[in-house]
Amino acid sequence: MDTLPVFLALRDRPVILIGGGAAAEAKRRLLERAGARVVDEAACDARLAIIAGDDPDDIIAARLKARGLLVNVVDKPALCDFIMPAIVERTPVTVAIGTAGASASLAKALRQRIEALLPADLGALALALRGARAAITARFPDPAARRAALDAALAPGGPLDPMRAGIGPESIVGWLTAAA
């Protein structure tokens, strides 16, 4: 593995964005969806920076790295401290596809195929599971038994199979009732 996949909590945190054009606007939209405060290079409290432009990226990247920031330079993996993955979003479920900078086109192709496979309402299942956490723990107080029960319920063809559309809170209540 050439890179470590991580999910960063950016809500209300400053992220430097340098550049213009379509690539910079796409990164701005992504950062704003994640709740980041997009700031310019002068921001002293930022820890992350994205460069998306035609300026001398290597000089800007070096300057930001010297300040201790982690830097991503769009389409220039050799200058990057981190890579932005292709993303399939079914909030709160997020699937990230990375190639360690080898091919953004391959990541995009995989994203498109995975997007077609995942039900549009998959996020509703995740939210329903979060909402039912106390009831699930009450029904399965032993952690090993709880994991086994959830694994079986979420397995292909199981009552909570995440690849099947239309699974929500009522499905979880039905599963817990049947498990009792």
Fold and architecture overview:
With 180 residues, the protein is an alpha/beta fold. The chain contains seven helices and six strands, in the order βαββαβββααααα. It has helices spanning 21-33, 57-66, 104-117, 122-131, 133-139, 143-154, 169-179, and strands at residues 14-19, 37-39, 48-52, 70-73, 86-90, 93-97. A four-stranded parallel β-sheet has the order 2-1-3-4, sandwiched between helices. A hairpin with a 2-residue loop joins strand 5 (86-90) and strand 6 (93-97). The longest helix is centred in the middle third of the chain and has 14 residues, at 104-117. It is elongated and about 65 Å long.
- Trace the largest sheet across and list its strands: 2-1-3-4
What's the SSE pattern?
EHEEHEEEHHHHH
* Integer-rounded radius of gyration: 20 Å
Note the beta-strand portion.
15-25%
Q: Supply the helix-strand structural class.
A: alpha/beta
Describe the global form. Answer: elongated
Largest sheet: 4 strands, parallel
Question: Any low-confidence stretches, pLDDT <50, length ≥5?
Answer: none
Helicity level, as a percent range?
A: 40-55%
Would you tell me the overall average pLDDT?
95
Distance between the termini: 43 Å
Number of helices: 7
- The overall strand count is 6
